[in-house]
Sequence to fold (243 residues):
Amino acid sequence: MEAPWKDQLALLDLQELDTKITKLVSRRKKLPQLARLTELTESNKQLAAKLTELSTLKTDKKRAITALENEVAGIETRRKTQQNRLDNGQGSPKELLRLQTEIQQMNKRVEDLEAQLLAVMSEVEQLDAVGQKISQRQAEYAQETISLKEEVEGENSQIGEELKELENRRNQRVAGIDSDLLDLYENIKLQTGGVGAIKVVAGHPVGYNLSFSVAEAARLRAAKPEEVITSEDEGYLLIRCPQ
Fold:
């Protein structure tokens, strides 16, 4: 294949622009803020799960409190009734003694239940404190997320402007390049992951660690300027330049 030497030289300018474009696109995808935003998203999921767990625990504790309060209320009602009977001396001495014993037992039971109530209420307070800390952390994460997104938007805007300029320069540069040569460059660039053309001066590649075989080096020296040459191993277009 042959193509005008000036068009081959133009591919070097095109490669430089494409390399810059690739770097900018990669930079946009790998902004440090994006990694932090991913971390914040995961952290928020974990915090939300903890809040759900806390809510379930609080519901269980409040249910326990209600049960304890109901039991205390029931005992208090019976204790009041039995105390009135005892105070009024209703019953035989044996019955009054039984009432006194029952009231003492109820007093002890109420004390135990009230101690349990205090313990469970204390646990609820602790859960509330943990929940407040989690909510505070969520608020901090939300504020950081807003700031990071603003930074990302600013970076993307700047990168977008640079990409737009490079794309315009690229469009201007490809104009007039031999279409077959341009198609070949694009295909090679696609296959190699971004590199389509390499500058070669005095038989040596510039900027790339390549080695040419004896036959390949001889071909480079003997080829006409218009001849399109690709490297044997990688398939890069080898653009011969005087310097």
